[in-house]
Amino acid sequence: MLEMRPDCERCGKDLPAQLPGAFICSFECTFCAGCAETLDDICPNCGGELLDRPTRDRDLLQKCPASTQRKHKA
């Protein structure tokens, strides 16, 4: 199951699990749309392709909550 990380690792922007706009690689490194675009959709951590992260319905978030651990690297 995806962690659904709460923020962009590059700029710190909030990325709620129930909303579109997050991009992830196969290791779940997470970036906002703006940062993913400036990275040419390539993860700077592993070199993997950044793809749209699926959303998680609010009802499912009750049962399977998203991660609260922020990964922004200032």
UniProtKB/TrEMBL annotation:
Cross-referenced InterPro entries, in alphabetical order? DUF1272
- Note the superkingdom of the native organism: Bacteria
Q: Which Pfam families match?
A: DUF1272
Q: What is this protein called?
A: DUF1272 domain-containing protein
Write down the species: Aurantiacibacter gilvus
